[in-house]
Design brief:
Layout (H helix, E strand, L loop, with lengths): L1 H10 L4 H7 L3 E6 L4 E3 L7 E7 L2 E7 L2 E8 L4 E2 L2 H6 L6 E4 L3 E7 H10 L1 H27 L2 H11 L1 H6 L2 H8 L3 H11 L1
Antiparallel strand pairs: 1-8, 2-7, 3-6, 3-8, 4-5, 4-7
């Protein structure tokens, strides 16, 4: 919870009283590698603050997994549309190694936010962070070549290249693994 509190303070001013009100909405959970934090077809009822390990978001398209995001320490993992609209998730979030998260229960979080403006503000800040990350990712695909996307990861998200398998990185970049190998060999 110490990492979560530091994360919260990096986003907004947050009092000890607000922390006490928020605490009942929080649960620390550990997922083993390959377990699902969220399965496609289910409604997302939580935000997951990753305090240790990492997980991925992916779609299953005709039996092929398409990775769309990775969440590392101090990231919030969720399906923002499913969370906000109570619709079934179109993608899954899966632990890629043992992952410890702090789970924000949606119902309890909303109740706490109704009684405390700092918690309401925190919720908006978290959603803004998630939306900004998604916007950067979308722009990356619209504006950059595969080579440029790889260079972007090198510069701004080296943890992806250090911790994620080549197959998953290739899927994330939208290229075949062989293409990724060629891109990497040109970089050496």
């Amino acid at each position: 919870m110490k990492n979560l509190l530091a994360y919260i303070h990096s986003l907004t001013n947050f009092s000890a009283e607000s922390w006490e009100i928020l605490s009942p909405a929080l649960t620390t959970i550990t997922f083993e590698k390959d377990q699902y934090l969220l399965e496609a077809g289910k409604v997302c009822d939580a935000l997951f603050f990753v305090s240790g390990g990492y997980c991925r978001a992916f779609y299953d398209k005709d039996g092929q997994e398409i990775n769309t995001d990775f969440f590392f320490e101090n990231d919030i993992a969720t399906n923002i549309n499913s969370f906000a609209k109570a619709e079934k998730s179109e993608f899954s979030i899966q632990a890629c190694e043992d992952v410890t998260v702090v789970r924000f229960d949606k119902k309890k979080l909303r109740e706490a936010a109704e009684h405390d403006p700092e918690i309401d503000g925190l919720g908006r800040k978290c959603l803004q962070q998630i939306a900004a990350k998604q916007e950067k990712h979308a722009a990356m695909y619209k504006l950059m070549t595969a080579q440029e996307r790889y260079e972007y990861l090198e510069k701004y998200a080296p943890e992806v290249l250090q911790r994620v398998s080549l197959t998953q990185i290739a899927s994330y970049l939208g290229v075949a693994r062989e293409t990724l190998s060629r891109i990497r060999s040109r970089r050496l």
